[in-house]
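hiii so um. not sure if this is the right channel but i have a protein structure encoded as tokens and i wanna go backwards to a sequence. like what aa goes where. can anyone help
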């Protein structure tokens, strides 16, 4: 009878011994083991991502010629608008350089734009992180900002040989300096605890008392450029509600993030250049 009870409890005892040994191991050993396991599974994740891209390619090949012609027309319109934006951007960049030289100001930071496909999202931490298909092989570094056409995605938290882990803007561990659009006074933004399949939200603190926001007229929250990570002017989200903080000196509120964050398939990493 005693042996039968021991046999039933053996898996739990083994699990307890493994957990205790893992806690006793030095931090360096645990970090090396975790990184080794990630590098071992990275080719599987990248391979599955490339298979999905190939499947989507062949699915698009099945479209009719009329669909392709219509898509080509839409793409031509988009390219025309982008060409105009590129010309305007070049003119603005030349004006900025002229003013920097005239006022003897230090140059603004320059970035190399590195597009990367999204490999995987962790369902247990849907709003915390995602994995992209580029890493040390494209000279990405921890802390590099990640963006998309809607604004901020997050920042690089881990870099491996061919993949990287991105900490999302919705993660509670990400905090950055921001400003309300049209107001240069800095405020503090931090990600929130979000449900897996619910809308992503964050929190904003240290809003001046003279700022008023109604639910039917939200204010846009953008990066301030302070801290040296994210360039100024990138969209974070919409401030939908604010209320006085407990100390009565400032206000705090909720930030509604872009809904497209939940369906990203490609992002852009801003790699700082000296």
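sure thing!! here u go:
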């Amino acid at each position: 009878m005693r042996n039968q009870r021991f046999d039933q409890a053996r898996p739990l005892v083994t699990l307890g011994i493994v957990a205790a040994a893992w806690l006793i191991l030095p931090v360096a050993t645990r970090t090396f083991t975790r990184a080794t396991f990630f590098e071992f599974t990275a080719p599987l994740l990248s391979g599955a991502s490339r298979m999905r891209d190939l499947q989507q390619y062949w699915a698009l090949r099945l479209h009719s010629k009329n669909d392709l012609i219509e898509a080509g027309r839409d793409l031509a319109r988009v390219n025309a608008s982008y060409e105009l934006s590129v010309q305007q951007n070049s003119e603005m960049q030349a004006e900025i350089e002229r003013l920097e030289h005239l006022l003897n100001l230090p140059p603004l930071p320059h970035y190399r734009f590195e597009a990367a496909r999204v490999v995987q999202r962790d369902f247990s931490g849907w709003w915390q992180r995602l994995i992209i298909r580029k890493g040390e092989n494209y000279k990405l570094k921890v802390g590099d900002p990640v963006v998309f056409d809607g604004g901020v995605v997050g920042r690089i938290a881990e870099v491996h040989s061919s993949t990287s882990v991105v900490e999302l803007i919705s993660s509670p561990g990400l905090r950055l300096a921001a400003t309300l659009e049209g107001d240069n006074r800095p405020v503090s933004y931090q990600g929130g605890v979000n449900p897996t399949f619910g809308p992503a939200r964050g929190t904003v603190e240290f809003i001046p008392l003279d700022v008023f926001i109604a639910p039917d007229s939200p204010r846009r929250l953008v990066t301030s450029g302070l801290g040296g990570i994210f360039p100024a002017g990138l969209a974070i989200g919409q401030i939908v509600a604010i209320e006085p903080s407990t100390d009565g000196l400032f206000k705090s509120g909720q930030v509604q993030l872009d809904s497209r964050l939940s369906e990203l398939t490609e992002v852009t990493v801003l790699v700082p250049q000296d």
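oh and The first strand starts at residue 110 and ends at 121.
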